[in-house]
Design brief:
The chain is α/β, with parallel strands linked by helices. It has two domains: 167 residues, Rossmann fold; 102 residues, Hypothetical Protein, Haloacid Dehalogenase-like Hydrolase, Chain: A, domain 2, CATH 3.30.1240.10. The strands form two sheets. The chain has an eight-stranded mixed β-sheet, sandwiched between helices. Strands 8-7-6-9-11-10 form a six-stranded mixed β-sheet, sandwiched between helices. Strand 10 and strand 11 form a beta hairpin. One of its GO terms (cellular component) is cytosol.
């Protein structure tokens, strides 16, 4: 008996939370036609979709449009849990801002560590170094306008939800340890990719926002199915009724999952949805 037969979550009751990069989208950052058809089938059968990403809302919107969540209904969890949006009426149901007073300290730390620091406002990505390779990767994925801000703090007069530190993965792993020590009890520090270190307010992660919002929507956390591949997906995979890791997921993510599906280049999400429908036959 597999986990789907054991849990017996009905499609109409299911909440499917999907990370984007490395999970819903393939290596070319595309949602395949096969995956889209499968998600359409899931929604048509009464299932609820949440796009749960570390990306800012602006960067998730194009994927939501492809899946027609503005018409069919669905939700966006963005900024690693800092924001939760109803796609159908464009209503922001939850937002947790990052304490502004922390920004000068974060900037000082970025300079001391010799790494890049960035944050967002709408379609703009403000950074200390706008030529750094990982910043360029972030703006390419999300189609942001580049804005150089060095020093950063004086230009950030708007509310912020998340900051992102970027550097080589091996070095950033060491930075992550130091940052977690310093900010314990104040900020949530987690890597979404080896080269992306996400910084949000304490208590903000995919799991905390997802479980809270699922309850507010009148759904059961037991019927929550969370799919992901990165370190920042660990919290929601552990909190889910069924936690799913992609075949291409980080080893720690695969170890924490109840089920390992195919890779993001093999339509792994289709496999999950098919498993849901199978036991109901």
């Amino acid at each position: 008996m597999n986990i789907f037969e054991e849990k017996k979550i009905k499609v109409a009751d299911a909440v499917l939370a999907l990370d984007l990069d490395g999970t819903l989208t393939n290596s070319k950052k595309q949602v395949t036609e096969n995956t889209k058809k499968s998600i359409d089938k899931f929604i048509d059968a009464g299932g609820t979709v949440v796009l749960a990403s570390g990306r800012p809302t602006f960067g998730v919107m194009p994927v939501a449009k492809i899946l027609e969540l503005d018409k069919k209904g669905g939700y966006i969890l963005s900024y690693n849990g800092g924001c939760f949006l109803d796609c159908k009426n464009n209503e922001q149901l939850f937002m947790k801002e990052l304490t502004h007073e922390y920004l000068p300290i974060l900037e000082k730390q970025a300079n001391e560590f010799g790494i890049n620091l960035m944050t967002y406002n709408g379609d703009k990505a403000y950074a200390l170094d706008i030529d750094e390779q990982y910043y360029m990767l972030e703006i390419t994925i999300n189609h942001f306008i580049r804005v150089k801000a060095n020093p950063l703090t004086p230009q950030i007069t708007f509310p912020i939800i998340k900051c992102l530190m970027t550097a080589d993965g091996n070095y950033l792993a060491k930075v992550e340890k130091e940052m977690k020590k310093y900010w314990e009890g104040k900020l949530n520090i987690v890597r979404s990719e080896p080269y992306f270190l996400e910084v949000t307010e304490v208590g903000i992660n995919k799991a905390s926002t997802l479980t809270g919002m699922v309850k507010k929507l009148g759904k059961s956390v037991d019927n929550l199915i969370c799919c992901g591949d990165g370190f920042n997906d660990l919290s929601m995979i552990k909190a889910a009724g069924i936690g799913v890791a992609m075949a291409n997921a980080q080893e720690k993510v695969r170890e924490a999952a109840d089920y390992i599906t195919k890779s993001n280049d093999e339509d792994g999400i289709v496999n999950v949805i098919e498993k849901l429908f199978e036991w109901e036959k």
